[in-house]
Amino acid sequence: MKKKIASILLLLVLCLSMVVPAFAENGFADEYYRVIDMADLLTDDQEQALLSQLDEISLRQHFDVTVITAETLEGYTVQDYADALFEHCSYGYGDSRDGVLLLISMEDRDWYIATHGYGITAFTDAGIEYIGKQLKSDLSAGDYAAAFRRYGELCDDFVTQARSGDPYTRSSLPKEPLATMWLFISICLGVAIALAVVGGMKGQLKTVRRQAAAASYLRPGSLQVTDSREMFLYTNVTQTARPKNDDSGSSTHTSSSGDTFGGGGGKF
Q: Per residue in 119-133, pLDDT tens?
């Protein structure tokens, strides 16, 4: 218990040390640093560029978009640590504290996205999984600036989509555009296969000659009708659509303080 209290106090001191003058008319409790790079993954210039990007998105969307990196989780789960950071750094817009937080832990190479308020609506479970996949290659390669920049762009898109009344679900997630090279290869491969098939069929017709009458195409003795009759068949088919598991919602949990969060994460 003492260790838990000490860790929470440390987080609180860290967040308070980064608070700058308040702008209550913007709907935020305070204007603060939305980037806390405790693991020192970014250069000063990269951190400043990311901070500017997230500030612009957050103020325009009235929705907090934040990034925190850590060397260690001090024995906590990545979920509990992310929830505690969101709470004790006073992140979130308005009374419902709408926001999203990306936590990167270098201890076991974890990523976790915590959502709160409207963030639970805007970022469904499928959406969080999708964002993680988009960031994983850059995170694994150590290009953290690119990963965090992409995270900001995706958050902006997801909030905009949610405000239209149709948050991204598994069936409506953005599709990755097909690379030009693969499009060219697909066209060439299709043409080559078509030419090969047509050429083969054409080769089989070299011995065929045009005949004057249709009867000439019938091989003698090849058609023998032994019985013939007409039958009318009637079939009534009823089709019912199978229910789809769209994973359109967001699972939630309660933090140690009793607050409600959504979220999800993985390894990189």
A: 999 999 999 999 999
- Count of structural domains, the chain: 1
- pTM for this predicted structure: 0.70
- Give residue 158's pLDDT band: very low, low, confident or very high (50, 70, 90): very high
Domain span at residue 139 reads: 2-174+250-267
Asked if residue 169 is part of any domain, the answer here is yes
Is the pLDDT assigned to residue 13 strictly greater than 50? no
Tell me if 180 is assigned to some domain. Answer: no
Nearest CA to 263 among 140, 149, 100, 154? 100
Query: For residue 8, what are the contacts with CB-CB under 8 A and spacing of at least 6?
Result: 84, 88
Read off the CATH number of the domain in which 59 is found.
3.10.310.50
Give the CA distances from residue 223 to residues 210, 213, 245, in Å, rounded to whole numbers and listed in that order. 21, 17, 53
Q: Tell me if residue 31 falls in helix, strand or coil.
A: strand
Question: Residues 6 or more apart from 122 whose CB is under 8 A from it?
Answer: 63, 100, 115, 158, 159, 161, 162, 163, 167
